[in-house]
Amino acid sequence: MDLEDIYRAEYGRCVATLARVLGDIDLAEEAVQDAFATALQKWQVTPPNPGAWIVTTARNRAVDRLRRESTRADRHAQALLLSQQDEPREVGPVKDDQLRLIFTCCHPALAPDARTALTLRLLGGLDVPEIARAYLIQEATVAQRIVRAKRKIRDAAIPYRVPAEHELPARLPPVLTVLYLMFNEGYTSTASALIRPDLCTEAIRLARELAALMPDEPEVLGLLALLLLTEARRAARLGPTGELVLLADQDRSLWDRTLVAEGHDLVRRCLRLNRPGPYQIQAAISAVHTDGATTDWRQVLALYDQLLALTPTPVVALNRVVAVAEVYGPAVALDALEEVHLPGYHRLPATRAELLTRLGRDAEARAAYDEALALVTNETERAHLRTRRAELAPAS
Question: Which SUPFAM superfamilies match (predicted)?
Answer without folding.
Answer: Sigma2 domain of RNA polymerase sigma factors (SSF88946), Sigma3 and sigma4 domains of RNA polymerase sigma factors (SSF88659), TPR-like (SSF48452)
